[in-house]
Amino acid sequence: MENLLDHREQNKKLHSALIESIESSFPLTSGNKTLTLSNVKVKSNLNDWDFPKQRQTKLARRSWQVPIYADVTLRNNDTKQIISKKRGMRVGNVPLLTNRFTTIISGNEYQTVNQLRRKSGIYSRVKKNGELESEFNLEKGFNFKMMLDPVTQLFYIILGNRKYRL
After folding, report:
1. CA–CA separation, 63 vs 58, rounded Å?
2. What residue spans define the domains of the chain?
3. Largest separation between any pair of C-alpha atoms in the chain
4. Rounded Cα distance, 49 and 36, in Å
5. Is residue 90 within 8 Å of 80, Cβ to Cβ?
6. How far apart are CA 59 and CA 4, in angstroms?
7. Which of 104, 158, 111 minimizes the C-alpha distance to 134?
8. Are 135 and 152 in contact (CB under 8 A)?
9. What are the tens digits of pLDDT across the range 37-76?
10. In CA terms, which of 14, 91, 99, 163 is 20 to 30 Å from 41?
């Protein structure tokens, strides 16, 4: 089972999805020339536990990112000759998730709070005051909560800001 709370694993997934997306966009053809990309790689040289370097990045108004390299070939379609070929060309950058699940872009640290979603289903818990609560996360329709009051032994449905006795 995968660990969704491992920032390194999330970075690997992000990088592989990005590489797949870049590779699916090529080859590009314009007129009688074709641009192809091969050997796309993300070179991560940053230590995610290097807090002083992250702080320097923020203070310098830079981004915590890693480069994307690829082998690029420009070919003439009529003669099938290679016009230009470059190995290890930098084609872009990708922000790297820190161990706090944040990205540092132009000196600002961003945290996306609504990126992870729970699957549809019922999630139950015992609140600090002893009440039992179940949250119904529906695939379609309105989500709601159901709780059991331990004193009165009554069930309540909480829909929006309203509380209804069951």
Report:
1. 7
2. 7-110, 121-165
3. 85
4. 37
5. no
6. 30
7. 158
8. no
9. 999 999 988 888 888 999 999 999 999 999 999 999 999 9
10. 99
DSSP state of 141: S
Instruction: Record the tokens describing residue 123, joined without a space.
Output: 């999630």
Give me Rg for the CA atoms of the chain.
25
Pairing mode, strands 132-137 and 144-148: antiparallel
pLDDT at 59: 94
b/e per residue 52-74 (b: at least 16 CB within 10 A): eebeebbeeeebbbbebbbbbbe
The answer to whether the predicted template modeling score (pTM) of the entire model surpasses 0.70 is no
Length of the chain: 166
pLDDT of the residue at 32: 92
pLDDT of residue 101: 86
Q: Find where tokens 């000196």 sit.
A: 107
Burial of 11 by CB count in 10 Å (0-12 exposed, 13-18 middle, 19+ buried)?
buried
Per-residue CA distances from 129 to 60, 120, 126, 132, 165 (Å): 47, 26, 8, 9, 19
Helix (H), strand (E) at residue 90: strand 82-95
